[in-house]
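#lab-general

N.A. 3:47 PM
ok so I finally got the sequence cleaned up, no stray characters, all 183 residues accounted for. can someone with queue access submit it? mine expired

B.Y. 3:52 PM
send it over

N.A. 3:53 PM
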Amino acid sequence: MASHYYFVIMVQILALISVFNVCFASRKLNALVEEPQTQLLRYHNGALLNGRIAVNLIWYGKFKPSQRAIVADFITSLSAPASPTAKSAASQPSVAKWWKATEKYYHIANSKTPLSLYLGRQIINDKYSLGKSLSEKKIVQLASNGDHKNAINVVLTASDVAVDGFCFNRCGTHGSKSTPVKG
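B.Y. 4:20 PM
back already:
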């Protein structure tokens, strides 16, 4: 029965949200969300996520509510409908139009179900339950706390959390598992 379920339990994007102090309200993103005339990304016939996928955010450390809201709003905007008739909606930052460019790959791969992302659970671990120095194994353990079925679990660490190798030999990491990880 487990073979009928598609599990994605670990996609880690490590970010130092506390230094992310950019004001999006003043930026005009129209040029960034226009669909390009040519295909900029090359599809290499690999596996594609499909169907309705939750993006679960796992917050490790202390974050301000405004920091959590910025990331949650971004995830929500991935599938937000663009309203061309509403002037206020057209001026709001949204990546939905840009994200639609990925649908080309589903046509190339003859996928019957396109990808639809939505904001899933938000798990807040502000007590530093695994300490303030995290190994890759601890990141996997944190990621496994999110949903296992039809989900991408994103681990975000606060600025006072050290992650082995982060900023020295990598700026983030990602991976996937088709079976649950025991942590």
